[in-house]
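Internal tracking record. Fields below are filled automatically when a chain is submitted to the structure queue. Please do not edit lines marked as system-generated. If the sequence contains nonstandard residues, flag them in the REMARKS field before resubmitting.
Queue: standard
Priority: normal
Entity type: single polypeptide chain
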Amino acid sequence: MINLRTLAGSTALVLAAAPALAADYTFSTFLGPNHPITLNLHVPWAEDVAERTDGEIDFEVYVGGAILPGNGVLQGVAQNVAQGGFITAGYVPAEMPVWNVIGDVAWEASSDYAVTLAATEFGLLNQLGHDEWTGNGVVFTGSASTVMYSYLCRGEPKSLEDFEGLRIRTAGNGWARFAESIGAVPVNVSYTETYSALERGAIECTNLDPTHLYNGAQVAEVVDSVVMLPMGPFFSQAAWAFNQSFWNDLSAEQRRIIFEESARSLVRLHDAQDKMLEDNLAQARENGLAVIEPAEDLVAAKDAFVADGIGGLAKIAENRGVANYQQAIDEFSALLTKWDGLLAENDRDDPEAMYDLIMTELYDKLDPETYGVE
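SYSTEM-GENERATED OUTPUT FOLLOWS
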């Protein structure tokens, strides 16, 4: 059961995992209640962990930045304002330079599922990826990727000429550089303001995955088309990060349960996102929105952008003074290749097979007695 209520003085919603008694712990996310990651990852994960620990670990999931804003979750979890949280590296670039660099490498990926699992491995088992979280005082236990980003637009642009001069809300980084490379104008609009910016005509397009037509940002009413140009997913984040003292106080068995339920939640998320993508595109077609294949010159421009080191990513990282940037790019790229191969060898439509794969390749390699404990 999920209960919805508002905080005093706030319009943000709270999703409380059953049972209905007050939760022992707080989990903070800036994502809204209808976001696919909220619906399919955080809320059911909290419910399942509470059930399996007989209520001893009972998280109340606060959504929409009700407890901590997006740029405050890392510090807030480290300082125990919340015991767990969803942390996006893009909000804290100074603290998370490596994770901000790898956020663009997924332009090379062919599968958002592979991106989630590569990022989870990078944070759990790769020294560079792992140390950046621990260095900021939190315990990382998994990542999560969106569906591949596309363009959701007013009008029906499909070619380079069509995109010339269009104002596009981007998530920064590679998406902004690519927009500039095709003659468009990247605009800094927050996720929560995307609908109104499109409605007012302040922007012509937004970089989002198509599940946000009728879920999440729910922009179907203010766009005319989806341009199916895959531009990597948004993933550079900790789906779950925990306060150090909270983590230290857990038993090894409780940590093992968190690992297992995290693996199950990653499977559930991608199964749900696949279905949501299919449903959103079908509903868009039924409602008269154009689902457009990009013109050859737009595809060629994207391929050239990726071939050019994802718009010169390594040079940008060097100019920012990011230590070990090339090692991070190379090692994360290798993980993407690894997981593309593993997914090709396994049936991603079989939830139990995917759970077993994730446990074997990732969480079974962690010792619940010692992982993250200081």
